[in-house]
Amino acid sequence: MDILMLGTGNAFAKKYYNNNALLYQNGFTLLIDCGITAPLSLHQIGQPLDGIDAALITHIHADHIGGLEEFAFRMKFQYGERPVLYVPDKLAAPLWDHSLRGGLWQEQSQKLEDYFEVRRIREGVPAVLHDGLTVEIIRTEHIPGKISYSLLFNNSFFYTADMRFHPELVTDLVRNRGCVVFHDCQFVTPGAVHATLEELLTLPEDVQSKIYLMHYADDKDRYEGRTGRMKFIEQHVRYTIANGKVEPSTSSRP
User: 52 CB contacts (<8 Å, ≥6 apart)?
Assistant: First the structure.
């Protein structure tokens, strides 16, 4: 599969945009989260909204869902379409009631399903998104009391979205399942709601070698060469994930 990060920055990043992505597999394009900066980033790479086959939401912070209002309105009124939205079952009601309802509610559109073809997915049950592409949502700790999920694609690629340090989980995924990991990374310590670089550097080197860092602050340049065996993933670069490796893609697409 291929992945292109629409943004690699944290919630407050201005240079690197919100940590959202496009995942490509067998002609299928999946939007992973749709934060405030996602519509601008999609425009900058020349990705039309109607060329996205589905979106998947991990949790309801604005840097992950703040662009959904624009996405919904444009798909409905510009393209006349109701896009597929994969949403964890426990997030469907909060996504509408607590985040989207205020902007999207209209007399003729009063629920999430009026804008999206909603497909609910459940914890521990791998969902088939497309031929050759499955996802398992794994609930991981982020904000106390707030539901948040990380994503396991094809049992080989783990995408944390936002997650506190969980060394046992990451080590198991790398050593026992052979996963590549895209992990959020906070530079400053302590890390109340994200794994910090200091914490991630305590992982064994063989585990670090499979970790690629994202969701970082705009001062990333200060930390180049200080990440152990881990590497930074860059914004607007398309990568191929295969055989436990991450390499720049040869695709002609963005």
Answer: 22, 29, 30, 31, 83
Residue 233 contacts residue 8 (beta carbons within 8 Å): yes
Closest CA to 218 of 12, 6, 5: 12
Angle between helix 68-77 and 38-45 (nearest 10): 60
Contact by Cβ (8 Å): 55, 47 = no
pTM, 2 dp: 0.96
SS3 109: strand
Distance of alpha carbon 249 from alpha carbon 196, whole angstroms: 28
Read off the pLDDT of residues 55-109 as tens digits, 9 standing for 90 and up. 999 999 999 999 999 999 999 999 999 999 999 999 999 999 999 999 999 998 9
Both tokens of 251, joined, read 């695709």
Report the pLDDT averaged over residues 173-190.
96
Pick from 237, 234, 232, 233: which is nearest to 254 by CA? 237
199 touches 95 (CB < 8 A):
no
Residue 87 is inside which H or E element, if any? strand 84-88
